[in-house]
Amino acid sequence: MILQEEVNYDDKIIGTLGVRMDKSSLNGDPNKYFPFLKSSLAVNIANFDFWTVDQVNQLKLRVAYGETGSSARFGSLYTVLDQTNIEGKGGVIINPNQGTPTLEPETSKELEFGVDFGLFNRVGVEVSFYNRKVNNLLFDRSLPSSSGFTTEVINQADLENTGVEVGINAQVINTSRIKWSTGVNFWTTKSTLTRLGVPPFPVPNNGFGLGLGTFYLRQGDPVTAIVQNVAGVPTIVGDTQPDFQVGFPNTVTFLNNFDFSFLLHLKKGGENLNLTKLLTDDGGTSPEIDERGAQYADTWVQPAGYLRLREIALYYNLPSKNMGSLGNVFESIKIGVSGRNLWTKTDYAGYDPEVSTNGSGVISSGLDVTPYPSTKQVFFHLNLNF
Number of structural domains, the chain? Predict the structure, then answer.
């Protein structure tokens, strides 16, 4: 069930207020409704009559609050039976994942403040600050083998994310011969586990234990921290979360018919657990091994920042006057070439600082165990419009 109301006063004051009521058979109580609110307010100051600053063509203040939720995956509520074969006869065994019949949905509450402003009708700036709190976080927890199970899903934790996002777009050149638009997108975020209702534990299937290094859930720590045993104490030795990231998109149109674009991506800070290097030097002869001869020391936690040419492309739009008889068939013809991930500058010792064995999830990135590096791709394009 969804209720929503929107108000727009002369495009000067814009507001939204809404609520969504959800229930699901994936929750412990399938008949219980969980409410999720949302609201927003934006004030376009530059649209008011008193605004007389011609150089600032837009000035918008905004605030928004929203809630959302997600239920546990199918099969988390109950312990299920799996089919098996026992001496040629069909049978069943108990699944090693223990069900948790009291699960509730994971809820996320986000508060965002921001300002948008434009200068000289050529430069646009967006700045946003956000705080997101996730309550009753759903996650897998390892169980002792003596229990008869290996894992269970629980939601006995709270997580807080804070971040800043800045976007700048500018029309640098705008003439009949050349047009150049550019931009800078900056973002940074930090996460902290603010509550954990069970003792600290390694995240299942997201590392290889505290000897090598793993993701370890502990109240007060970032969930992206890499933790190893140091003198028998689980200690943070790295963090996969970068200090900040920057995107630098550019588009240039020149000689009326050529389009050139590229996107640079900078990641500053953040570490990977480089077990690829460990595997390729399993004899322990690497000069990076510490003086104690501890092969599994934090040598394998390495900086994974980079500067990457994410995309680059060049297109040519064939003028209609040069189409000849083809102009009777096609409205436009466009040819070009583009590439992805063609160049990367990094000090990371692995194959690729960006890839991870377990994908790009928050509690899984930065784990490098000989995954395939990002592919370098080149495309040739021919677009025909009839």
Answer: 2
DSSP 8-state code for residue 30: T
Token reading at 71: 């239920």
What does pTM read for this prediction? 0.86
For residue 59, is it within any domain?
yes
Task: Give the separation between CA 69 and CA 134, rounded to whole angstroms.
Answer: 9
Instruction: Using the 3D structure, point to which of 156, 177, 212 is the last residue of a domain.
Output: 156
Cβ atoms of 116 and 62 closer than 8 Å: yes
Q: Are residues 18 and 137 in the same domain?
A: yes
Residues 85 and 214 in one domain: no
**DSSP per residue, 189-241:** EEEEEEEESS--EEEEEEESHHHH-EEEE-TTS-TTEEEEEETTEEEEEEESS
Higher pLDDT, 327 or 49: 49
Express each pLDDT in 25-82 by its tens digit: 999 999 999 999 999 999 999 999 999 998 999 999 999 999 999 999 988 999 999 9
d(Cα 229, Cα 79) in Å, to the nearest integer?
Answer: 33
By the 8 A CB rule, do 218 and 226 touch? no
Q: Note whether residue 331 is domain-resident.
A: yes
Domain assignment of residue 174, yes or no: no
Q: What domain range is 122 assigned to? A: 1-156
For residue range 354-378, what is the model confidence (pLDDT) as tens digits? 988 877 665 778 899 988 899 999 9
| CA 231 – CA 330 distance, rounded (Å) | 72
Residue 26, strand partner residues: none
CA 190 distance to own-chain centroid: 12
Give the separation between CA 286 and CA 67, rounded to whole angstroms: 50
Altogether, the residues listed in the chain come to a count of: 386
